[in-house]
Amino acid sequence: MIKFQVTTKSGTEMIDVTVQVRDAVEKSKLKDGVCLVFVPHTTAGVTINENADPAVRRDMLVELNKLVPERDYFTHAEGNSAGHIKSSLIGNTKQIIVENGRLALGTWQGIYFCEFDGPREREVWIKVTE
Ligand code: ZN
Hints:
Blueprint: E1 2-7, E2 13-16, H1 18-28, E3 33-38, E4 44-50, H2 54-67, H3 81-90, E5 93-99, E6 102-103, E7 109-115, E8 121-129
Antiparallel strand pairs: 1-8, 2-7, 3-5, 3-8, 4-7, 5-6
The protein binds zinc ion.
Residues 76, 78, 80, 84 line the site of zinc ion (ZN).
């Protein structure tokens, strides 16, 4: 397993980690297989989406925050239930095909670490297998 750190700077944020994942695949020396990207947190996630226009990320976060705001009736003592819910909606795992030693992503796709209860020090775990 390969791990790397992500430092988030705000409450909700999407951070491009495509380069770090690509580096992990290169380090593994695997030619053909699957790269598993796993986020070991309960108020964060990982998604694949457009890497060209940053407005897409902004719009996604605005809408997610509208969809799941913090509610007066939430009972979780830590006060971050909205983050837990968004984490489950987005999910904490992605799989990407590795072909000829490279991540097989679409032209406009990037891999994003999604922070839902920042700022925090976070980790991403990578497993590359045949
Ligand atoms: Zn909590």
